[in-house]
Write a structure and sequence with these properties.
With about 250 residues, this protein is of the alpha+beta class. The protein has a domain of about 100 residues. About 30% of the residues lie in helices and about 20% in strands. It has 4 helices and 9 strands, in the order αβββββββββααα. Strands 1, 2, 3, 4, 5, 6, 7, 8 and 9 form a 9-stranded mixed beta sheet that branches. Strand 4 and strand 5 form a beta hairpin. It is elongated, with a radius of gyration of 66 Å. The relative contact order is 0.07.
């Protein structure tokens, strides 16, 4: 009984998840398309491969078709479409193509989601629509009349007047400034002339030069004998004092 209840709960969860996925797919009309040849879109050539097509997340315009890679990680292009009605409903996605001249990639005409009676029809630029219409007798390709974003045309450059050559100034003669006279070399300094000494000054200088040199130390004027006598006397007195002290003891 418990296993049966668990099975019912699992089936209910899976069913709710599937309903959520189905509701999401119903909203954005997610469809997977695989092509083995080049496919022409209104604004580019789609190379062979697997792609995801779905409507953009817009509640006001439900005719904005986006092409993603198979992992839905890269938006390849976005195309504005117009509503197209079909009489017979089918349970699978339907893609309609325009007839094109031999050797040209097939041009995508319309896309119908399973169970919808209104689909998305793609409009082409005027020049390309005219070419495709010529190959489809009795059918007219819708034209996308929205102008393509034109690249800004740079403003023409204003002509620049050629610069007139400036007149060459006439050479001006400049009088040479007079050179100052060269300074005279300074006169050689004259050596002072020393007057000859008189006989008296010469004799005094001779005496001074012949005088004996004075000693640097003072002569000794006294001897050390009194100090020796005093030292001997004090020694005797000390010896007597020691002898007297020894006897008393």
């Amino acid at each position: 009984m418990k296993n049966y209840l668990k099975t019912l709960a699992f089936v209910a969860v899976v069913s709710m998840a599937a309903m959520g996925i189905a509701a999401a797919d119903q909203w954005d009309k997610k469809t997977i398309i695989t092509t083995d040849e080049v496919m022409q879109l209104p604004n580019m050539m789609l190379q062979p491969g697997t792609y995801v097509i779905k409507l953009a997340e817009s509640s006001s315009n439900r005719h904005i078709v986006q092409f993603y890679d198979k992992d839905e990680k890269h938006l390849i292009t976005t195309v504005l479409a117009i509503p197209n009605q079909r009489l017979r409903l089918t349970g699978k996605s339907v893609f309609a193509f325009w007839e094109v001249p031999a050797g040209q990639p097939k041009a995508l005409r319309a896309w119908f989601y399973p169970g919808d009676n209104f689909g998305q029809e793609f409009a082409y630029r005027s020049q390309e629509a005219t070419k495709i219409t010529a190959s489809n007798s009795g059918a007219e390709v819708p034209i996308d009349d929205q102008p393509a974003a034109a690249e800004p045309t740079p403003a023409p450059a204003e002509p620049v007047a050629a610069a007139e050559p400036e007149p060459t100034p006439a050479p001006v003669e400049v009088a040479a400034a007079p050179q100052p006279p060269a300074p005279e070399p300074p006169a050689a300094a004259r050596e002072p002339v020393t007057p000859a000494p008189t006989p008296a000054e010469a004799s005094d200088a001779q005496r001074i030069n012949q005088a004996p040199p004075q000693p640097d130390t003072l002569p000794k004027t006294a001897s050390n004998l009194p100090w020796l006598v005093l030292t001997g006397f004090l020694s005797i007195v000390g010896a007597l004092a020691l002898n007297l002290a020894y006897r008393r003891s």
